[in-house]
Amino acid sequence: MNLLRRVYRKVFDLVSRFMSIVRVLHLKIKYPTLSINFGTKIGRNCQIMSADNSKMVLKNVFIANGVILRADDGGFLQIEKSYIGFYSVIAAAKKIIINKNCQIAEMVVIRDQDHDIGFKGFRKGDIYIGENVWIASKATILRNVTIGDNAIIAASSVVRNCIVESNSLYAGIPAKFKKKLNSSEKIK
Fold first, then answer.
1. Domain holding 64: CATH number?
2. What is the pLDDT of residue 66?
3. Is there a domain that residue 174 lies in?
4. Section 71-95 average pLDDT
5. Hey, which residues does 58 pair with through a beta bridge?
6. Which terminus of the chain, N or C, has fewer Cβ atoms within 10 Å?
7. Contact (Cβ atoms closer than 8 angstroms) between residue 178 and residue 160
8. Cα distance between residue 5 and residue 79, in whole Å
9. Active-site residue numbers?
10. Nearest CA among 91, 75, 170 for reference residue 130
11. Strand-strand pairing, 76-80 and 95-98
12. Are the CB atoms for 161 and 145 separated by under 8 Å?
């Protein structure tokens, strides 16, 4: 029975890898404004869209099941060598850059635009996320945010219009500085 389970897992892993390659090929053909390499792994039920006048770059990204990635009208989205957790949403109408070795947990929302009062249009602002950043589950990152290297954003926090210092922990609604991180507290 154990041998059968191991064989089943191995076959299932191979099928999953093959389907990820098929998804990457499909996206390369469908969206000429999307630059994606075969080091990127795409889970099931993901929605990835790059509008004709936008640009999306995905390089060695692990995208878990149910993730939504959008480079909307004129937007730029770049993610490199990072993990995007289950059912997260990342939508760029202006500019979002996520650097190497970031861990984005499940159900995180990163959006660089929001509605004006009265829904008369959008307000947009850049989002820059440094290297080795951990964004915990259900956190929300909104426009005009810079997150420094080695920072941690606590679960369910809302970050907007601020600069998150490198090597620090931010938490709350709105997210505020909580403490400097020592080397044993940083993610590796």
1. 2.160.10.10
2. 97
3. yes
4. 96
5. 36, 79
6. N
7. no
8. 35
9. 115
10. 170
11. parallel
12. yes
